[in-house]
Write the structure tokens for this entry.
Amino acid sequence: AQSVTQPDIHITVSEGASLELRCNYSYGATPYLFWYVQSPGQGLQLLLKYFSGDTLVQGIKGFEAEFKRSQSSFNLRKPSVHWSDAAEYFCAVGIIQGAQKLVFGQGTRLTINP
Amino acid sequence: DTGVSQNPRHKITKRGQNVTFRCDPISEHNRLYWYRQTLGQGPEFLTYFQNEAQLEKSRLLSDRFSAERPKGSFSTLEIQRTEQGDSAMYLCASSESSQYFGPGTRLTVL
């Protein structure tokens, strides 16, 4: 069965520091992969996606992610975080067949220290 | 604003009551999804429409839940005889390729 694991439930970084959020997936075919961000009480905003091609994808707000097939990973990175990046981050795998629904990880809550 | 909209944003109800939520997708999107998100968890898929046809339902969607998309535009999600376990955020998304989410409806069942 398809699954997504985000090993870190909560991460705290200082403003201006670099960030890496981990995501591992389990899926039998070539995955479609996504990162979404959710601010408190809000819906999810798409940060970036990987369908095929270049394994390093750029997204909005200065985020990037790298697809590593050998490690079944799709980690999210940002070179320098801003206080406004504090939110919940969700990694998801898109199921290619049928509904093409998303299977989400549990999320990683990011706190920014001033 | 051409994003996905959901109404109401918050709903508080008593156990046993029926509730209905509405989702208005991005107008050119023919795919529409409902997800449920409980506290501290990622969203879980509930159901999917392609135009007006409901093509897939999760086993999470019990008989008390029904969803419609009568004209292939907006969709409604109804929960009958609500239970405290139904308390969650209900998220709607629409897509052509990537899914774009609405702000959600937070349901609290007392």
Q: What stands out?
A: Chain B touches chain A at residues 4, 6, 31, 33, 35, 40-45, 48, 55-56, 91, 93, 95, 97-104, 106 (CB under 8 Å).
